[in-house]
Specification:
Length: 361
């Protein structure tokens, strides 16, 4: 008989920690249980005594952490009788919303900024059958429109302002604690809307209060320099960055993020686009882990803060990788313009000669 996991998704596994009932119809695609990978090569290359782990959320069903929140948001929308959901998105939310709506048999409407979405994410929303509305404006304008529309049309918002999204996303912190057996000293995340860093702090805090784990990490949020309202101390009206997933100037979890930063004794910081892309490529070349650009902000920031001593030696660090690298193939290919690609005749002699010449330097 083939092996079958006891759990089919994070709601099943963490039912006692989530706002669902025994008779709730669970809308799941088997999300959660993503790998926590120790970065041996990257950690060694820094030249400091630290352990860095990445929580690879890009291995969720639609390729991003958004699935954790979407399983809860759509489950509760269906429970409340909703026939349609709506979101504004820079890409990953639209993909997750469309997939879980398809699973539930309801309609998904997604507002995306025209020309500002990675093609991998656009393809997902289209294939899952969402009704896609491209707006001539950025994510922040789309979010304002979604909130207005939801007041006048029978649709449920599934952006991170939906509290059930945060409930689902907090389970990533549960998984980290269960795998490590303790809380890391620092948890680094990319920050756009700030819902994910808020959700992680909620998860750590719930475990902390239960007495199972007696420590919580310092939470560090990294933004792209062109979209860094937390570093500017005010909203940014025209955010720009190659890291499309965090190209957000008006974070919806603004107040909560500031509160958790203070409570956890953490901080916010920013990275230039070139530093984000360098971290993305380093991770792929050194560890064989391919994440989308926004994800790499967490690792790039952690490496910099280890090198400058802001994160001390001996620290255990977890970096969240929010999305899979295949979400944005164009940006990845652009970085590999000098990659070695040789066209040769399809003969054994040519293949052998090319390999031996390459090995000889």
């Amino acid at each position: 008989m083939p092996f079958r996991s006891r759990y089919t998704g994070l709601i099943d596994k963490y039912r006692d920690h989530l706002p669902v009932h025994d008779d709730t119809r669970i809308i799941s695609l088997g999300e959660g249980n993503t790998p926590l990978i120790r970065l041996h090569n990257v950690s060694d290359s820094i030249g400091k005594d630290v352990d860095i782990y990445v929580k690879y959320e890009g291995l969720n069903p639609t390729g991003s952490f958004k699935d954790r929140g979407m399983t809860m948001a759509v489950t509760k929308a269906v429970e409340d009788g909703s026939k349609a959901i709506i979101c504004a998105s820079t890409g990953n939310t639209s993909a997750a919303a469309a997939a879980y709506a398809a699973r539930a048999g309801i309609t998904a409407y997604v507002l995306i900024p025209e020309g500002k979405i990675a093609m991998g994410k656009m393809a997902q929303a289209m294939m899952y059958g969402a009704t896609i509305l491209q707006i001539k404006g950025n994510f922040d304008l789309g979010m304002d429109l979604v909130k207005q529309v939801a007041k006048e049309a029978p649709v449920t918002i599934v952006n991170s302002i939906n509290p059930f999204r945060i409930q689902g996303q907090k389970t990533a912190a549960f998984e980290i604690l269960e795998e490590l057996g303790f809380a890391p000293d620092f948890h680094c995340l990319p920050v756009g809307n700030a819902g994910n860093i808020t959700a992680h702090w909620m998860g750590y805090s719930e475990y902390h209060k239960s007495g199972i784990v007696n420590a919580r990490p310092k939470m560090i949020g990294y933004q792209a320099s062109g979209a860094a309202p937390f570093m500017r101390g005010e909203m940014v009206d025209n955010p720009e960055t190659v890291a499309t997933a965090i190209r957000i100037g008006h974070p919806q979890s603004w107040d909560k993020a500031w509160a958790l930063q203070k409570e956890s004794h953490g901080w916010f910081d920013e990275l230039a686009d070139e530093d984000i892309l360098a971290a993305q490529k380093l991770l792929a070349l050194s560890e064989g882990v391919f994440c989308e650009p926004a994800s790499a902000a967490s690792l790039g920031g952690a490496i910099r803060d280890v090198k400058n001593g802001k994160i001390p030696e001996g620290s255990k660090i977890v970096c969240t990788l929010t999305g899979n690298g295949l979400k944005d193939p164009d940006t990845a290919i652009d970085q590999c313009a000098n990659a070695k690609m040789t066209t040769i005749d399809a003969t054994l002699d040519e293949v052998k000669r090319t390999i031996l010449d390459s090995m000889a330097g």
